[in-house]
Amino acid sequence: MEISTSVVVLQPGLYILRHPGAGMPALSIAITPRSVGKSETLVTNKKHGHALINGSDCLVMSITEAPVELLVAAYGEAGNVVTPAIKIDRIALDVASGSGSVSTTPSPVEKGLSIVAHVERRGDVIVRAGEMAGDINAVHRLEGFQIIWPDRPDGVDLAYAVVIEGIGATPVVKSGHFIGTRREAKRITEVTLALIGPNAAQYKLKGTAIFSGGFQIPIQSGLPLGGPSGREHLSGFMVDVLAAPEKKLSASISTPALKKLPATPTAAVPTLSKKVRTKSRPAVTEKSTRLSNNAK
């Protein structure tokens, strides 16, 4: 499956969002956290959330107070990259100039690192670098994600892989590709992110992965991360790519310690195991991405 995303901004008003019609891929619509305005949505009967599967589906959306930014994701067949297209019509409501089509092809995602995450009970959300993708309270599952880096520098890329409950380890993919599942209620129990490429040493990863039970683990390039028992699910993560300091880095990398987040009133206090899952699988390297050359 190939997933392409775009962003469109709607000004205050009343809109009908439609699937573009036969032969076009299914779409999902999500409101980004950067949206300032308020929105109310009516969805087609018997459809799952804000999904437009075919020409019989539509959404009616009311935007008030300020503009709202929408993330539009298109789901194409493997190897077939498509540009998300959606029909958006504004309902005039006695405003002389208010009728007509707003956009059929949303503008591209803005520059910089961003994450599209599929979160249990929330659907797709989008965050920028350094913002939490998922549930910071470590309750809901983060079931899949895609890292978007349209303006990445030459000679470096961000690769990632996960271990999924009932499926196992996935192939390594690079930025721009979705990994994980959607609407299958499956847990990600391990995640690995790694900088690859000839210029990878000029950059470093900064971020944190959060697993159920309240465990947070600092992200280090190429190091598999998981909870102490291996059954904790990934709830969220934040990551950014920064320039590495010019001084020579030490060749040795210590295993990150698991730290417990502040406990919620209902959360049981987990027992830390000496067996840290972060050592259970080999690190992701540029070599491993070449071995899994099906990643695009």
Give your account of this protein's structure.
- The protein is mainly β.
- 2% of the residues lie in helices and 43% in strands.
- It has one helix at residues 286-291, and strands spanning 2-10, 13-18, 26-31, 38-43, 51-52, 58-64, 68-76, 87-91, 100-103, 114-119, 123-128, 133-134, 142-148, 157-164, 168-169, 173-174, 178-180, 188-196, 203-211, 215-218, 225-226, 234-243, 259-260.
- The protein has a 5-stranded antiparallel beta sheet with strand order 4-6-2-8-9, with no helix packed on it.
- The longest helix has 6 residues, at 286-291.
- 38% of the residues are buried.
* Backbone shape: globular
- Which H/E pattern describes the elements? EEEEEEEEEEEEEEEEEEEEEEEH
Strand content: 35-45%
User: How many domains make up the coordinates?
Assistant: 2
Roughly what is the average pLDDT, rounded to an integer? 75
Strand order of the largest sheet: 4-6-2-8-9
- Total beta-strand segments: 23
Largest sheet: 5 strands, antiparallel
Secondary structure: helix percent: under 10%
